Amino acid sequence: MAADEKKMPSEAEKKFIDAIVEFYDEFHESVDTEMIPAQRKLEEVQTLLKEPTIKIDFTDDTGTTPLQHAAFRGKTDICQLLLANGADVNSRFHDNGYTALMFAALSGNAETTRLLLEAGARTDYTNSVGRTATQMAAFVGQHECVSVINNYFSKDDLTPYIKIQGVDTEPRLPQELVAPLAKMINFANLHPVKLAFYLQENSGLLENSKKVVRTLESLCEKCMKSRDTNHVMAMKTHYFSFVVAEAGKVYKEKGSLDEWTKQLIKGRQSDGFSVMQENLIRESIKQFLYSDCPLFHQCVRSLAPVKIGDDPTALNVLSQVINGQRFFNDDKTCSTCGEIKAEKKCSACKMVNYCNQTCQKLHWSTHKKFCKSLAEQYVRIEEMKKKEEELKQKEEELKKHKEDIEKRKGEIETLVEQKEEIEKQIAEQ
Ligand SMILES: [Zn+2]
Ligand SMILES: [Zn+2]
């Protein structure tokens, strides 16, 4: 569509945009407004999509497409629906050159951002003032989205590996592993238990672990030796190759990762710290082949003086190097697998979070030794919070009291002045 074709949206198109916007608002309305059931709105969007007068990528008076509206509101499910119906992820008719990816990045919704990347969103496009989606997200402090975009690995990068090359008789990577492998490379959570869960679910990666490891090693080499070296990706692909190799060995021997996962979760007697996890990650860093990589040096420097069990852990250091600060600021991290936004708490101590019951059950054999003392700690923290609250309240009362006194003083002064004035008047009479 040429720019001069841009026109005001039709009534049907306006209704369509409204349905998308309202779908979003449903989650943000206050209690006294009538709630619009999300499901009904989704159905409305679906119905409107079928209308022949609505073209999926029509633009409104600012050049914004429905997909961009949905992306800006972080509505992953609507974006998914629009993309499935052929919406152009890279439409560029917006007045300020914003793309759907830029809108998603601004929204701060990492899931929406990831979805658009998976749909082929270009990361190199710039808006009318020359900013990419990453730069825009960084500018408004949406660091999770910055990390998602920076570490995004496209499935296309695996295409060379599914072709039969040279004297080979079979491709280096089976076609059906492209999607699960690309998805794994895109993980922001590097926790070995999370990887173990994922590998177990995608056992093809374990059955072909040697091929997967070779592919990852080759990607790592490419990251280090190409003209545009990508140290983050090199560290990441190397780490994954190491974990897949270890898991592959276990899987070959035992036919499952269950036991290995349990060992990874198990904490030591004294403080519940998982030594095996720490050693696994430290070993993977040690085996990184490219000694001229500055990130490798950063890892070694950070970890060399740290005793096993002290902070920072190898996982923290590696995550920081690969993802930035991400894992340091979140207090809702699953104690078992490192996923963020883990909302479930241990009901006894309320001091540890989990994704779900599975994660909690797996952690219990370690956690049960510390649950009681953590519960006591929780009580102390709560008491302290309460005391602080009381103190704050008292301080406020005192402040108000002082202000009252000042006010009274002023009043008295005025009265004294008035009295003197009257006495003066009497004396003069
Ligand atoms: Zn978990
Ligand atoms: Zn507990």
Automatic annotation (TrEMBL):
Superkingdom, taxonomy of origin: Eukaryota
Q: Which UniProt keywords apply?
A: ANK repeat, Cell projection, Cilium, Coiled coil, Metal-binding, Repeat, Zinc, Zinc-finger
Question: Which segments constitute the MYND-type domain?
Answer: 334-371
Q: What is its main location?
A: other
What CDD domains does the record tag this protein with? zf-HIT
Molecular-function GO term, any one: zinc ion binding
Q: Name one Pfam family in it.
A: zf-MYND
**Compartment(s):** Cell projection, Cilium
Q: Which GO terms describe its cellular component?
A: cilium
Q: ANK repeats span which residues? A: 62-94, 96-128
What start-end ranges are recorded for coiled-coil regions in this protein?
371-425
Sorted alphabetically, which InterPro entries does this protein's record hold?
A: Ankyrin-MYND_dom_contain_2 (IPR052452), Ankyrin_rpt (IPR002110), Ankyrin_rpt-contain_sf (IPR036770), Znf_MYND (IPR002893)
Do the record's keywords include Thylakoid?
Answer: no
Q: What is this protein called?
A: Ankyrin repeat and MYND domain-containing protein 2
Q: Which organism is it from?
A: Mytilus edulis (Blue mussel)
